[in-house]
Design brief:
The longest helix has 14 residues. Strand 11 and strand 12 form a beta hairpin. Helix 11 runs antiparallel to helix 13. The protein is an alpha+beta fold and about 325 residues long. Strands 4-5-8-6-7 form a 5-stranded antiparallel sheet. It has a 4-stranded antiparallel sheet with strand order 9-10-11-12, sandwiched between helices. A 3-stranded parallel sheet has the order 1-3-2, covered by helices on one side. Bound molecules: flavin-adenine dinucleotide and iron/sulfur cluster. Iron/sulfur cluster binds next to loops.
């Protein structure tokens, strides 16, 4: 049985207290929400904070406010189950509820939060193993070792961005609010991710994710498609998120296609926008966008399934996403 290492557990009741505690803990500290990512990582000694600061009692993080007309604010501590069931999310942003429903299992969705999902550690077959397994291969660069077993000549870690909501939040232009003892800042979700499996966030470790702001819902459509081995439980090995702005006559005026599960950060395929914009969402445009995404997706051999097949699946998954949006 894998046991948690010893740590001090702190439960702030206000945002001010939380960022102060985190500031005091320094490099030894880490926030926890549902713990569905952090605690398994601690059991495997991938992450070893000595002070764990819970965000569970912070009222601001537990609220959902606004709607599709004004834009929706979702507190970072709102659980995935609450998102799946929330009437306004289902009415005005149904693609968010559907994507959240694809995450993991009902039990994990009851604990796991949207904030934890957006800040999920990157994943790799050589890293997501217990301590003894990792020790037997002399560890790897992401934790305790010196070499990357996926690309031994590489100075970069290729562990994969594996959250289902990240590509969707990037595609729809969501913004996130971060707080620390130095104050608050708001950034586009797209600006939060760094294409490096070790240093995967453009966020200081002491910054608390407070909430996520979805833009007003009118005039655009969005969807998310997920490839995984089983219909439940499994992380995505490919995620396709699409946002389309379509004019009254059916002309696509803007488009954003973002792939997850193929790189250390969500991958926006800018050429796919060029393939789609300026005309109707017809088969030719859909095919061109799918081909562009296929060319840009370069998964490596560090998750489930062989990489060539995962790359090939980009075409049908992009097609499926766009065909679904064509019918809306
Ligand atoms: C078996 C299994 C299957 C899974 N399947 C999927 C899947 O299919 N798709 C998927 O996307 N995920 C999956 N997950 C991962 C995880 O369950 C979810 O991503 C979940 O949403 C994480 O949320 P959490 O609140 O539990 O995060 P936590 O474990 O509490 O935190 C995750 C990270 O975020 C940080 N953090 C959390 N909240 C904040 C905050 N407010 N401010 C600053 N830092 C914060 C923590 O310090 C930690 O680094 C799976 C996990 C397991 C164990
Ligand atoms: S990509 Fe390389 S360095 Fe990164 S976790 Fe995997 S084996 Fe380790």
């Amino acid at each position: 049985m894998m046991r948690l290492p010893k740590f001090t557990y702190r439960v702030p009741l206000t945002l001010g207290e939380a960022v102060k505690m985190r500031g005091e803990a320094g490099p030894e500290g880490q926030f926890v929400a549902g713990g569905t990512d952090l605690y398994p990582n601690m059991k495997r000694r991938q992450q070893t904070p000595r002070v764990v600061i819970s965000v569970a009692r912070l009222r601001e993080l537990r609220e959902i406010s606004g709607d599709g007309r004004s834009g929706l604010r979702i507190g970072a501590g709102v659980t995935l189950t609450e998102i799946c069931e929330h009437p306004v999310v289902n009415r005005d942003y149904p693609f968010v509820a559907r994507a959240a429903r694809l995450i993991s299992t009902p039990t994990l969705r009851n604990m796991g939060t949207i904030g934890g999902n957006l800040l999920l550690d990157t994943r790799c077959n050589y890293y997501d193993q217990n301590y003894e397994w990792r020790k037997s291969i002399n560890f790897c660069m992401k934790k305790d070792g010196e070499i990357c077993w996926v690309a031994p000549g590489s100075s970069k870690c290729w562990a994969v961005q594996s959250s289902d909501l990240v590509p969707l939040m990037v595609a729809i232009g969501a913004r996130v609010r971060l707080a620390s003892t130095l104050g608050e800042r708001e950034v586009l979700a797209a600006g939060l991710y760094n294409d490096d499996g070790i240093d995967y966030l453009h966020k200081r470790p002491d910054e608390l994710l407070v909430d996520i702001h979805l833009p007003p819902a009118g005039g655009w459509r969005a969807t998310y498609k997920k490839l995984r081995r089983r219909g439940s439980f499994d992380f995505p090995v490919l995620g396709v998120a699409v946002r389309l702005d379509v004019e009254g006559d059916g002309t696509v005026s803007d488009a954003k296609l973002v792939l997850g599960g193929v790189a250390p950060a969500p991958l926006e395929v800018k050429d796919a926008r060029a393939a789609l914009v300026g005309g109707p969402l017809d088969d030719e445009r859909i095919q061109r966008a799918a081909e562009t995404c296929y060319l840009k997706a370069r998964p490596l051999d560090n998750t489930d399934f062989i990489m060539n097949w995962r790359k090939q699946m980009t075409r049908p998954y992009v097609r499926r996403a766009l065909e679904e949006l064509k019918e809306q």
